[in-house]
Amino acid sequence: MGRNILCWKRIQAFVKDGPDAVPRTAVPLTGRSRTMFGEEGVRLSEMHSPSDAQSPAATQLASDRLSKAIAEAVDWLLQRQDPEGFWVGMLESNSCMEAQWILAMHFLGIKDDRKLDGMVASILNEQRVDGSWEVYHNAPAGDINTTVECYAALRAAGFSADEEPISRAREWLLERGGLSQTRVFTRYWLALIGEWPWQDTPTLPPELICTPLWFPFNIYHFASWARATIIPLSVLSARRPVRILPPESRLDELYPETRDAFNYRLTPKKRFFSWEGFFLMADRLLSRYVEFPIRPGRELAIRLCIEWIVKHQDADGAWGGIQPPWIYSLMALHTEGYGVGHPVVAKGIKALDAHWSYERNGGLYIQASESPIWDTVLTLQSFLDSGRSPANCAAMVRAVNWLVQKQVTAPGDWQVKVSSVSPGGWSFERANDSYPDVDDTAVAVLVLARARGALEDGTSIDHAIKRAVRWILALQCSNGGWASFDRDNTNSLLAKLPFCDFGEVLDPPTVDVTAHVVEALAHFGWTVRDTPVARALAFIKAAQEEDGSWFGRWGVNHIYGTAAVLPALAAIGENMAADYVLRACDWIAEHQNADGGWGETPASYVDTSLRGIGDSTASQTAWALMALLATRASRYNSVFHAGVGYLLRSQYDGTWHEPQYTGTGFPGYGVGSRLQEDVHERTVSIRQGLEVSRGFMINYNLYRHYFPLMALSRARELFESQHRESASELGTTTRLRPMPAQAIVKRGTPGLRRAGSKGRIVARRLIRKTAKILSAVSERREYLIAQRVQTSRRS
What we know:
Number of strands: 5
Largest sheet: 3 strands, antiparallel
Shape: globular
Order of helices and strands: HHEHHHHHHHHHHEEHHHHHHHHHHEHEHH
Oligomer: single chain
Distance between the termini: 39 Å
Structural class: mainly alpha
Radius of gyration: 30 Å
Number of helices: 25
């Protein structure tokens, strides 16, 4: 019975005094050592569930604090809704975004001093003390590629080689091998400004666009983002345009032994007799073909590429909803004679003035992408978890209407391989109709279904949901999982091509996306008896790590993956006491930090010993809490309370501060899925250390807000449920029962008087305790009614 009694006093102690208020002995986990991120959590054997009943006053005070935090978080979001009805937070990445735009403006011949000055300021804002630039917040080391691109951008903007930011960066670069250590995409940028020979960059033949679908290197075998980047890059690779920097801005100082003595050539990362070696030799032949005077089909291929680019421009002027295809498409069009005044190019340049940029700390920052659909559906989910409803919240009605209007019903690239179903997904961005994704669609379907019952006329929602569910089911991959944009995008041979040394070129099925789909389908009554869910569950089980966790493809990292899976398992009615489920829960619990929170560094994508380790963050703490809360297991009560306490203590003005990067664009594996050990060795061989130089990390500025709101709301629901069950259970056990006949003895029996007196004392105590609990339940009921009335009036 005691295991189900709510320990509100512990939450109060965590909120008021911090983790030291509740005795927990932090000990190192088996086979683990203390890291730079601080002490780790406790063993499960040392966890204990509360067994002391709290007074109604103490219970009420802690409950009030939790409800107040939830209400403040809801109000914070309500104040930041866009007039159109959506929510969107800034998407922070790294300084390559601003550096590449400065170089692109130079290439396109655009003069815009305001933008230039703002982007220069943002680059200087982000320079590390050692002179480098990093890929994610507080990375253990700078990234050589980002540093080279920022260096070149500052020089192109007019900085001399002797100025302090430049000399500091140059010293750092030369100590680490300089330009010879850069990735292929950085070399493309250097070639565009005349600082690297085009013939020593990997060749991207535009003829790929002409190949049939059965050809292994057809463009539709690449991931959607890679495809949209490769096509404009192939035009640039074929034409080899150069806009040389002014003489005073050339990068001669990065060639200490002169340019002629520099070795520009790529070298195979594996033995010569390997696919990598073979493709490198083929690339050298293709490079010769570019210089050959007779190239049959080349002009046709380039023309088809340009037509493809124009056709795929988004409504807001960008391409593919991300920066690389956007910026490369502008330069490819310019190379083919499209001036900056041409409507297509002008629209693309103008997009930079809209929602793609933001100002902060005196600098102009460029977003690598934008997330209004994703932020809106997750905000709606947090509202629904908190008890809000479209019936009493006009902001939710506006958001739902906006979301329904944003459903993609236009054809997209995904139809090349899946032509049997009509469009019906949602994109991540507001204007990207070519690439709807399964992840956004799954969460959109879930929140629309949850909101549907509170709306008077849900006809349009019903139609949108049916269309979306059919689309999702059609994109299920052959192994039972779901990828983000395409079905069965798994040709690993593509990752061995010479230009594929950054990010991911494939979009294979992932556990996190699959789990979100399963959770959405469960809301419509789908269970493991339904084939799509059964296949998905098999995929999820097969992907579980030996330590019990799951890899996170789109969020950092194993905390995110595990937190996606456990609520999905609960939603389909899976046995949450099953061994494989408890192993995942134990992994989460064992990685709780001493302050009650959770954190995981992006470096865990490179070093597996860093899984679940990092400074506590609001978003990752929320993920971990929601993972454990899905089990509703009292064995984790002390873990729940510590995590809730962390979120309550760290909330400020209704929200949370989080400079850490907890979103993932690319882990940097090339193949887009988790690494096996042999692939991990390959990653090390291509110079990806803990700085994650091949990866792309993201700080979604609203993750720090709506995920904690979800976690606190779900925690409140669980705590209140436990409290009700405790009161009911205690009331049942304290009900007086008649004395059994065999216990009746003569009053003169020795010891009877003493036993009878003791029994009466115990009975009186139980009656008083029962009365107190029943009174507390009554008070709590009255309080909740008053809260609902107050909330209704406020909305």
